[in-house]
Amino acid sequence: xxxxxxxxxxxxxxxxxxxxxxxxxxxxxxxxxxxxxxxxxxxxxxxxxxxxxxxxxxxxxxxxxxxxxxxxxxxxxxxxxxxxxx
Length: 86
Fold this sequence. Notes:
Elements lengths: L10 H11 L8 H7 L6 H4 L19 H14 L7
């Protein structure tokens, strides 16, 4: 844990929750496919809804585009100690 900036969840609990939910069918429809269509360059963005594990970033700053996405990725790596988990 890094103050109030980053929290690390219990790895065993995360694995348990993932195993419990990974195969859960999630609703998908034409409207959602239409919303995803413009993001065809990003494989996960156009996939039907699915459960995954990963780091997340939330804040009051809105970002869009390659430059700001790179900023967000660097910020997550900074606060997580550049630890990459599969």
